[in-house]
Amino acid sequence: MAKRAGGHKARRDGHIGPVLRPLAWSAMLGAAAAVAFAAPVYADPTPNTIPDAGSRPAPAGALQLPGATPPPNSGGVNYPPPSTVTGPLATQIYNAEIEIGLLGDQLLGVRESQATARTDLAIAHRKLEEARAAVAKAESAAEGAAAQALKEAAELPPGAFGSDLHGLSELSRLQRGERSTAESDAAEHEMARAKDAERVAQEEYNAALAKEQSLAGQFTTLEATFKTKEAALVEVKDRNAAQLAVIERQREAEEARLGAGFLDDEAIAGKAAHPLAIKAVEFALDQLGKRYVWGTEGPNTYDCSGLTWASYRHADYQLPRVSRDQFAGTRSKLVSQYALLPGDLVFFSSNGTASGIHHVGMYIGDGKMVHAPNSRERVKVSTVWWSRFFAATRVYGAVDAPTTTPPATTPPPTTPPATTPPPTTKPPATTPPPTTTPPTTPPTTPPTTPPTTPPTTPPSTPTPTPTPTTPSPTPSPADSPSSNPSATSAVPTSSSAKPSSSSAPPATTAATSASPSPSATPSSSASASTGK
Q: Are strands 301-302 and 291-292 parallel, antiparallel or unpaired?
């Protein structure tokens, strides 16, 4: 038994039982498949298709759209500076500018509230004076009524003795300060009403006076803080002017780079700025170079919101005075930075919320704005602070852009008429030469021949010596007078060569002799005879 048991145990240890055999085969097949299809990671082939775009990277912070719920942040002036601000000095100045801007807007708000409180106090004071006057009038009316009653009661009209006694009783009551029932009720009612009105007016006046005094104290405290911090900032800037100039140039270049893709055309989707918005822009640009002074709105100095306020007031629109209020008053017309038009207001915030708005400018196109930066600078044009951009609003709605492009393309057809004149000018330029050359030659030859021929012939006729030789030329002149002078003039042109070539001496004698005048007279007489 022991031997069988031992043999059975050895068999169980050396062989897999029928129950575990399927599991073993499955494990072996799985291991073989894993070994057969296993490959190292670096052996994966390079994909030959475009990879899927996948998910976009998440932004570093929550996207803040104008008018939407602002993302949570620390608030205040410790909001992280934009990428355009680098270095400890630039960061210090950036934070100081933000703090001063916020203080300035807060101070402007207190000043506006103080002005309203003064107005309310003046109104309350006027109401109190009116109530006091009403009380005095009521008292005077009551005293007059009492005096009249006393006077009437003191008079004893004639009549029965009983009536006289009644009058004496009335007089005694009036002397004790008593009045008749009707007069007493009316006087007391009027007096009570007047005194109640005076009490209410006094309470309103006291409240208005307390509010005005509280705002005055708050304004004084804020103003002192503002001036202290502003002076400290100016001192830091003046001490580091050279370094700040470099920082400002770098920041300006970075802002221009950031805004390069926003807008490069003044007409967006067929829209253009409203003419009144252009009028506001023109006014703002006319103020370039004027000093920045906090709390002023012209005409010689401006702060940031004072410049926009005055510009749109010039364009017949009444903006609120403070930059944050300007945004609140126009936030119903929010505009994307990709669709800005000249005249749009651009706001900048320190913490990405409306409560952090500390500066406002006016967009003028091409990524530029006109604004009054701070107390160390003047009204100027600069690149929009895209790194601090919070929102933009439009005061006057855009209008349809003028369709001036078709007329611009039509002028080319008008140029061919401009090219046609050159051919017309060239023929006149070429034709004058042939016309000038003939006149030059004929005038020269006729004047020479007519004077020479008439003088030569008349002197030859009176002289008897050349009778044998001259008979032949003399008959030709005799025959020529029979024709008209016009015919003779035509003859010398053709025969001009004959006298000049035949007889040069006669031409010289005719030129030297003074007998052309008598020769002219015979010709005239001959013509007259021929006319007969």
A: parallel
